[in-house]
Amino acid sequence: MAGKHRLVGKVLEVAKKMLVDSTNILEENNIKYILEAGTLLGIVRENRLLPWDNDIDITVTEEYEKQ
Length: 67
Prior knowledge:
Radius of gyration: 13 Å
Shape: elongated
Largest sheet: 2 strands, antiparallel
Structural class: mainly alpha
Distance between the termini: 33 Å
Number of domains: 1
Helix content: 40-55%
Number of strands: 2
Strand content: 5-15%
């Protein structure tokens, strides 16, 4: 994986807050979303964000693209 930033320490704490805040906003606005890739794998398999990942993967379905 390219890049030096990993989801550890302060970066992990910021990533968790961003994930929670983002999903709360989406849910409050009844916008369907999907966690994908490393984010989904980490949450399902290990109940956490993977420390060797370097991003958060969220997809919003196409029907909400113009909102």
